[in-house]
Structure formats: C-alpha cells, structure tokens
UniProtKB/TrEMBL annotation:
InterPro entries, sorted: NAD(P)-bd_dom_sf, Sc_DH/Rdtase_CS, SDR_fam
PANTHER family registered for this protein in UniProt: NADPH-DEPENDENT ALDEHYDE REDUCTASE 1, CHLOROPLASTIC (PTHR48107:SF16), NADPH-DEPENDENT ALDEHYDE REDUCTASE-LIKE PROTEIN, CHLOROPLASTIC-RELATED (PTHR48107)
Region (Disordered): 52-83
Family stated for the protein in its record: Belongs to the short-chain dehydrogenases/reductases (SDR) family.
This protein's UniProt keywords: Oxidoreductase
Signal peptide: none
A GO molecular function held by the record: oxidoreductase activity, acting on CH-OH group of donors
Membrane-crossing segments per the record: none
Superkingdom field: Bacteria
Descriptive protein name: Uncharacterized oxidoreductase YghA
C-alpha cells in the first residue's frame, strides 16, 4: 500500500501502470475512493450530484484536532484535480488550518495559482501538514511552515511576524482554522469548551487580522470562513454556530474599516463539508453515515469544491467585491 502522498500521482501514470496498480491492489480501499473522486480537473463539466459519492460514510471517531490522512474516505482537497492558471502569481498568502480540509484545499490551489505560502496548522497535525508541504513544493512555490495553537494570542502575533519575515510580505490572509464540537444539551456544554471555541474561531480572527492589516498593501485580500451555521444553526452546535455568526459580522465591519486602505475582506460560508472536524466530535458518531444527505444535492461537499471560491476572492478578479459572503452549501440557502 502506498502513502496518501502518492495518490496525487495516480493520474500522471500511463494507462498500463494504472491498470497494474489497480489489479494488484496497490491501493487501500480508502485510497481507491480518493482516486475515484478525483477523475478530472475542476474545469470538466459533470453532474454535481454524482461528482462525488453520495453513499453512507462509515462511523469513525478521532480525538481533536484529528488527522485527515486517517479518515475513511479521505477528503478530496484537489490534490489530483486542481489545475492552476497563474491567477495569484507573485502573491504571498498566509493560510490558517492549512494542513487538512478546506485550508488544505486552499493551500494547494493558491500554490498552483502561483502564490508563495505560509502554512499555519496545529502541531498535532504535523503529519497532514507535511503532505501539504510536499504538494506546495511540487508546485514550485516558497513555503513557510508555522505550527502553533491559534487559541493563544501570542501564537497569532508570532505567526504573522514569521510569515511576513520569511515570505517578504503578505497580501493574502485566508483564515480557515476552526473548532467544532457537538453538544446536544446546554447543561452539558462546559464553560471551558465555550471559551475554547470562541478563542479558536473568533479571538484568533481578531488577533491575526490585527497583527496583519498594518503590513498589508493596497490590493490585498482577507478571506474569513463563516458557515451556513451562522444562518441555520444546528441545536447541537450552540457555541460553534454563535462563533460563525460573529465571524460574519466581524468580516463585514472589518471590510468597511479597511477598504480605505485598499484592502478587501470577504467570507466563505460552507455547508456540510467532509473534513476532520466532522470525525473529531463535530458531528455525533451516529449521524456521520448520513452526513450531508439532507442537502438538495443529497451529499456532503468536498474541500476541493470550495478552493476556487477562495482563489476568486483572493485574486484581482474580485476587485469590486468586499463585505460579501459566498455560500458553498449544496443548495441550502443562506439567510
């Protein structure tokens, strides 16, 4: 069996090599699911209902923050499918939560679009981060690895300082890192969890943008990550949904404050996306098999399906877009 890092190279093999590897069970069942999901690049027209499997996810659980590489199936972050076209050539991006899930997809896409990357991630996710690092290097981009727990104010400040110093500047800030833990009853929701969720999702957003904005030039872009939970909160995600609503308001207020500096600020609001958040307590284990099936599309989204939105908001193509929220929800409406 090969490592997850070798999966992205499957589609570069000739037909005979592909056939040999598949016939000889060269890949694990989880890796085969990734291969099946990644049959073309993001530009090929296809039916979105069948673009990714809509079947049941197996029940599974990891301790937080979790590793994407140990999920089944492993989320598709565009390792094999994202094809860049130079839309971010010469740009310098700091991405939080860049080791897995949506952050990983964003890092891969930004690098393949020509940006140098500062990758922020939790130290416990080093294994996943190392995989992303290899993909960024394969894209020929400069990379800065920045492990740290962003619920600590000093880590946010140091993360920005290191990104600025080692990249030689910063003109894209994509804030994706987050904490989500489902609790059905408010009586069971501890003050510790409530505080930690806000520190990770909201306080960190304040600390990192406060540190970065003074150094960002006109034309720079800040992209936050809200959620459909800000509009349609699940009862078991009381603290998480509240933080996502706060992110939404913070984004709009900050956008109006910094547009005078020529800096745009927008947000992406995902729906149910298959990431490590879901298997580390973000969803009750018994609900995982049908995760995402209630959307009009009848399936969960994959991180790769969000990356193009972040690229658009980071690029000059969205020059007249600020203080906006872009939903990627599988058909569930925002508002």
């Amino acid at each position: 069996m090969v490592s997850q890092l070798n999966i992205p190279h499957f589609h570069s093999l000739d037909k005979a090599s592909k056939s040999t590897r598949l016939t000889n069970n060269y890949y694990s069942p989880n890796e085969l699911k990734v291969i099946k999901m990644a049959e073309s690049d993001q530009y090929k027209m296809q039916n979105p209902l069948t673009q990714y499997p809509a079947g049941e996810f197996p029940k599974q659980q990891q301790s937080s923050p979790g590793l994407q590489s140990e999920m089944g199936p492993v989320p598709d972050c565009g390792e094999s499918t994202y094809r860049g076209s130079g839309r971010l050539t010469g740009r310098k991006a700091l991405i939080t939560g860049g080791d897995s899930g949506i952050g990983r997809a964003v890092a891969i896409a930004f690098a393949r679009e020509g940006a140098d990357i500062a990758l922020s991630y939790h130290p416990d996710e080093q294994k996943d981060a190392d995989q992303v690092a290899e993909l960024i290097k394969e894209a020929g981009r400069n990379l800065v690895m920045l492990p740290g727990d962003l619920s600590d104010e000093s880590v946010n400040i140091k993360t920005v300082e290191n990104a600025l110093n080692q990249l030689g500047g910063l003109d894209i800030l994509a804030i994706v890192a987050g904490k989500q833990t489902a609790v059905d009853d408010i009586a069971e929701l501890t003050t510790e969890q409530f505080r930690k969720t806000f520190e990770t999702n909201v306080f960190s957003l304040f600390w990192i943008t406060k540190a970065a904005v003074p150094h960002m030039p006109a034309g720079a872009s800040i992209i936050t990550t809200s959620s459909i939970q800000a509009y349609q909160p699940s009862p078991s995600l009381l603290d998480y949904a509240s933080t996502k609503a706060a992110i939404l308001t913070y984004t709009r207020a900050l956008a109006k404050q910094v547009i005078s500096k020529g800096i745009r600020v927008n947000s992406v609001a995902p729906g149910p996306i298959w990431t490590a958040l879901q298997v580390t307590g973000g969803q009750p284990v018994e609900k995982l098999p049908h995760f995402g099936s209630q959307t009009p599309m009848g399936r969960a989204g994959q991180p790769a399906e969000l990356a193009p939105v972040y690229v658009y908001l980071a690029s000059q193509e969205s020059s007249y877009v600020t203080a906006e929220v872009h939903g990627v929800t599988g058909g569930n409406h925002l508002g």
